[in-house]
Design brief:
Layout lengths: L1 E8 L7 E8 L6 E7 L4 E7 H10 L4 H13 L8 E6 L4 E8 L2 E9 L1 E2 L3 H119 L4 H17 L7 H33 L3
Antiparallel strand pairs: 1-2, 2-3, 3-4, 4-8, 5-6, 6-7
Family: Belongs to the XRCC4-XLF family. XRCC4 subfamily.
Organism: Catagonus wagneri
Keywords: Actin-binding, Chromosome, Coiled coil, Cytoplasm, DNA damage, DNA recombination, DNA repair, DNA-binding, Isopeptide bond, Nucleus, Phosphoprotein, Ubl conjugation
Length: 301
Amino acid sequence: MERKISRIYLTSEPEIIHFLQVAWEKTLGSGFVISLTDGQSAWIGTVCESEISQEADDMAMEKEKYVDELKKALVSGAGPTDTYKFNFSKESCHFSFEKNLKDVSFRLGSFNLEKVANPAEVIRELICYCLDTVSEKQTKNEHLQKENERLLRDWNDIQGRFEKCVSAKEAVETDLYKRFILVLNEKKAKIRHLHKLLNEVQELEKNIEHKRETPTCSEMTANRDSIYDESTDEESEIPPSPSVLTSATLKRDDSIISSPDVADIAPSRKRRQRMQKNLGTEPKIASQELQLQEEEKDNPD
């Protein structure tokens, strides 16, 4: 059986502390046993499931929601200034409780209790339950404390290992970095050396190629000149072909065509006529002179 003991204050006697115990088997909605005591007297009552359903119907609430309100009111242990108010009449043994919503309050439930003839037994049971609960809580607390200490030791151990791992990792990283720097410097030196050798080989190849190209160029020039001379001699021996003459004539015609225009053609005709006349008289004059020279030879006196 599950129990819950709470401290409440009655509206009629707010200065007196009352203890309310609620015990149930399965759930609070299936029925519970309620006990009330002020330390001197005790009252007890049983609330069945049908009464809970009837109260829910009277409140026009669903049963599950009404049971939740019962838990908040009876199990949470509300104080005098809290949301829930408790009333109890010692004459009629009627117990009721209300819920305050701002300035409005409504009744959540009411039960009839019976006065216990031997309240000491109920009080003793409450005290035993409280002591058992305290002992159980203390044992659980001690177990949790030991568990916390164990977890703290494990955490310290793990933290120490972690710090060692971090230190080892940093040492390994430092060593690897130093080795990497050494290897990198060696590789750089090798690369620079190979680059220098490559440049030297390239310069040597360029010089060799330049030396080879120089005599080759002179030989090619000499051969070209000899070939040119030979071709010129052969061309001088070979008579010009008709095509060459034709081309020369065409070039001459072109030069004539491209020369400046003649201003007048008539004077050239006159000059040709005079030249022809002079050519016709020159032989006659020459023959006359020859006859005179022969006569002088025959007659020297």
